[in-house]
Amino acid sequence: MKFSAQQIADVLQGSVDGDPQVEISTISKIEEGQSGSLSFLANPKYTQYIYTTEASAIIVAEDFVAEKEIKATLIRVPDAYNSFATLLAYYQNMIRKEKHGREQNVFVHPTAKVSDDIYLGAFAYVGENVKIGKNVKVYPHVYIGDNVEIGDNTVIYQGVKIYHDTKIGGNCTFHANVVIGSDGFGFAPQSENDFRKVPQVGNVVIEDKVEIGAGSTIDRATIGSTILRQGVKLDNLIQIAHNVVIGENTVIAAQSGVAGSTHIGKNCMIGGQVGIIGHLKIGDGVMIAAQSGIGNNVKDGEIIQGSPAFSVGDYRRSYVMFRKLPDLNQRVSSLEKKIQDQQKE
Amino acid sequence: MKFSAQQIADVLQGSVDGDPQVEISTISKIEEGQSGSLSFLANPKYTQYIYTTEASAIIVAEDFVAEKEIKATLIRVPDAYNSFATLLAYYQNMIRKEKHGREQNVFVHPTAKVSDDIYLGAFAYVGENVKIGKNVKVYPHVYIGDNVEIGDNTVIYQGVKIYHDTKIGGNCTFHANVVIGSDGFGFAPQSENDFRKVPQVGNVVIEDKVEIGAGSTIDRATIGSTILRQGVKLDNLIQIAHNVVIGENTVIAAQSGVAGSTHIGKNCMIGGQVGIIGHLKIGDGVMIAAQSGIGNNVKDGEIIQGSPAFSVGDYRRSYVMFRKLPDLNQRVSSLEKKIQDQQKE
Amino acid sequence: MKFSAQQIADVLQGSVDGDPQVEISTISKIEEGQSGSLSFLANPKYTQYIYTTEASAIIVAEDFVAEKEIKATLIRVPDAYNSFATLLAYYQNMIRKEKHGREQNVFVHPTAKVSDDIYLGAFAYVGENVKIGKNVKVYPHVYIGDNVEIGDNTVIYQGVKIYHDTKIGGNCTFHANVVIGSDGFGFAPQSENDFRKVPQVGNVVIEDKVEIGAGSTIDRATIGSTILRQGVKLDNLIQIAHNVVIGENTVIAAQSGVAGSTHIGKNCMIGGQVGIIGHLKIGDGVMIAAQSGIGNNVKDGEIIQGSPAFSVGDYRRSYVMFRKLPDLNQRVSSLEKKIQDQQKE
């Protein structure tokens, strides 16, 4: 299938700068562009490649100003990354074969209510009283425990394990080997360093449009619910402990962990490998740098870094000095010597 | 089902402070208490809620002193958290339906010895010469490799993968997608930056009453055994490398990792996202703050923090100064100027 | 089966120092050696045990010089760790029963091309147009998505989930519950803090002799490929994001994460719990200390530590001073007082 740069610009409601008839048959990264391919430029780190790429057309920001000659046709749009996402969605729909129907060897408890139009992969397990909405995809080796409810259009990839009583909204995506609803980590210390398990009788509630990355684990509440609100996006290998609440559209990068009963606000952006201790309140719109450790409540809109974390600007100023500590030590030693010399005089 | 506050106090051997006849029909968190619900107060952070909660009864410490009027009936006990755990266990037993019997589509090797009374979920795999004790629960999609032995009453949730030769005690709980017995990470450097795999011919030994959180991975020993002693509790997404030994009742929070051949003592408490390098000896009763990095042996009873970690008090004092480093630098610059001015005079 | 120390030395092309006829029937760690067992000494931390071990023979370096009497027979070789790996391989071949054939209850799509000699465990899933080479082992509960290709002799342990379009070389090993080909974490911010998923239409390419540890996750590329080059070794619970490229024979320890589009060179050694942000270039032969955070490009051969990381020597010098910060603060206060006293005079 081939499209002209003009046709693509029309779809994106952009303007063409260069040959509008150049033919596009595939999509590539800008640094790997070839004749016939379409690329995009959104991250300034890659601007250099626009002058050397072999791509036939490039989606750029409306206000992009070239500093040298560019061979490719430019398609100018208000937001290059978003427009590229739109095109990728078209492309994916063209190349992807949607899964449908029930494969052999599935386990569906007779009491489960399952829409007729779902995909149910081989070796999937659907427990007692489960309710699954329309157009849901349940890939092979998925486990859906008793009393789980799943909304329309949700996609559950191979190997996801959902414990009993979990409530899941519509249009969610869970990647391979996600675990939802495992017991919270609660042990009451007994005499003589023995521990006794605190039963975890709550559940997990996941609202609409939540995406969870491969291998992440979401623990059920001790009592009440662990909650991921609408639009939450979790990357891979993230740990969410019991009774945590994460607000709307908050995004968390890979390998971060949130300890028990902490509430995180909406529209936060949390970097990778961040740790947040339990029983905290993190405000709305908070940004946390990668590898930070959060030991106190955080106010709306704060941007923080460090372990323990504080204001990102202050952290960076302190870290600059950390790198110069041996030098600072020398300066203090030198001062000490001068004072001592003075006092000898 | 309904109980009076007095009936609950009798079960917990506590005393009633307020209306002993108030009716309880459910359990809630103190901040979400409603008429008819029972809550508890153990963490002082939540004390404020005792004056505003709508819960009908609250389990508190014997010596709790109210600073304002409290509407709810108090049930006073020596240890509120423990008593609440007791009640949760009762509650769980009432609401939970225990799994029993063999579901369709299981793989059990003819040489495996499996008690008649176990639960064996659909798509579970039981290999050659496996021995499974009484009242064990094997959920769907569990893999039990050749020669594995499992003690009585152990619960193995969906998707757990246990490699060959692993020995597991009784009353253990392994959450979804735990991996036990994967190869240790051993590669012998060859000429020209090539590596050659060191075969891992040892196994994993897990004693009684061990709990392992979702997605954690326990590698088998190169030779000998990786060992988790009785009562060890591991949270989610923890990595235990080959030939590690973890002592009795040691508790490790989520996303921590222990490198090869390190021995950890008993009754330790290790925070989340801690890393411990290989070939170390960590003593008994050690406490390690979250996100710490351990690069040296640690003596019995030490409490440490930092990466690399040292005494927690010293770490905190250093970190206070780290935050003030730009200020310290200013002070040194100011001193330098003063000395210089003096010398000019 | 029994061997003499001389027979073992012959296999390893080593020389015997002590009784060449002593009989060996098993392998042990040096600190757990017993009569009849063979051990090795490679890590100097364990040298003390050579004087006390009950092992009958010990593999040591050619140039090892004993400081006291040693009871055991020594087998001297150029590289003790490598020789021990050789012996373990012999031992493993003796004790291990290779898996062969097709177990019951597998799902193989009629269009899949699968060599006759592979092992296909129960409940394994092989999708449309999959191609699997000779002597491949596919353990139970493995999922192989549509259009995946797998080279000869690759071993895929229980619960591994491989998404569609992944290309895998020969002689690879993937441990239990590894995920390959999950969607990259790409969301285009929309108005009002909403996010829109960026379709991930690329794939994952894994070359020959790659080993991936249990529970690790490798995301597919947005466009193009996420690539692990020949000989890459990843430990457990590692996260590799979309469009990352990792060079030949690079080794990464457990729980590290690499963010999107970063390219790592060949022959690097990366410690555990390291985080590397996106869009970076890490050179060849780079060494990164455990728990470091990498926020900038790294040149060939650099050795770095810290979060953010810099030269390991400088980091350690700074950290020594970090520990002494309260003391440095005292020294500055003392200087301030002296200057002030001077000025009063």
Describe the structure.
Three copies of one chain form a homotrimer. Chain A has 345 residues and is of the alpha/beta class. The first copy, chain A, folds into two domains: 3-95, Udp-n-acetylmuramoylalanyl-d-glutamate--2,6- Diaminopimelate Ligase, Chain: A, domain 1 (3-Layer(aba) Sandwich), CATH 3.40.1390.10; 101-315, UDP N-Acetylglucosamine Acyltransferase, domain 1 (3 Solenoid), CATH 2.160.10.10. The first copy, chain A, is built from four helices and 39 strands. An eleven-stranded mixed sheet of chain A has the order 10-13-16-19-24-27-30-33-36-38-39, covered by helices on one side. A ten-stranded parallel sheet of chain A has the order 8-11-14-17-20-25-28-31-34-37, with no helix packed on it. The first copy, chain A, has a nine-stranded parallel sheet with strand order 9-12-15-18-23-26-29-32-35, with no helix packed on it. In chain A, a hairpin with a 5-residue loop joins β21 and β22 (195-197). Chain A is flat, with a radius of gyration of 27 Å. Chains in contact: A-B, A-C, B-C. Chains B and C meet through β22, α3 and α4 of B and α2, α3 and α4 of C.
Helices and strands in order:
Three copies of one chain form a homotrimer.
Chain A: E1 3-4, H1 5-12, E2 15-17, E3 23-24, E4 26-27, E5 37-40, E6 57-61, E7 73-77, H2 80-95, E8 107-108, E9 113-114, E10 119-120, E11 125-126, E12 131-132, E13 137-138, E14 143-144, E15 149-150, E16 155-156, E17 161-162, E18 167-168, E19 173-174, E20 179-182, E21 187-189, E22 195-197, E23 203-206, E24 211-212, E25 217-219, E26 225-228, E27 233-234, E28 239-240, E29 245-246, E30 251-252, E31 257-258, E32 263-264, E33 269-270, E34 275-276, E35 281-282, E36 287-288, E37 293-294, E38 303-306, E39 309-311, H3 312-323, H4 325-344
Parallel strand pairs in A: 4-5, 5-6, 6-7, 8-11, 9-12, 10-13, 11-14, 12-15, 13-16, 14-17, 15-18, 16-19, 17-20, 18-23, 19-24, 20-25, 23-26, 24-27, 25-28, 26-29, 27-30, 28-31, 29-32, 30-33, 31-34, 32-35, 33-36, 34-37, 36-38
Antiparallel strand pairs in A: 1-3, 2-7, 21-22, 38-39
